[in-house]
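Changelog-adjacent note: as of this version, every example in the card shows the full chain rather than a window. The one below runs 116 residues end to end.
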Amino acid sequence: MNGFEGERDLLRIFIGERDKHGGKPLYQAIVELLRTKHFAGATVLRGIMGFGASSKLHTDRFEVLSLDLPIVVECVESAENIDAVLPELERLVGGGLITRERVHVILHRPDKPTDS
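Full-length structure tokens:
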């Protein structure tokens, strides 16, 4: 065990692909913020279909192609670190959804070097 395994919090931030902050994609600004706060990691997932509070459908289907597909930013971190960054995240996210749940981390380690 490396000290990160065990009880942690999973933070999910649901936004749109077109959402911006400071002229760049909002998901990029969020990941950069989490990285500067030394989070263990973050992943950006691009959805193929979804809707949010506005009930507007966003999809990658050609006949109703959306230029604003759903984006989810996920990270797993200690409750204390998430508590500390939440006010900044709430300022960044104009419209969207932020959720949090308790998870149990089984493994967290960097990739093993590959044989060349």
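Structural remarks: The radius of gyration is 16 Å.
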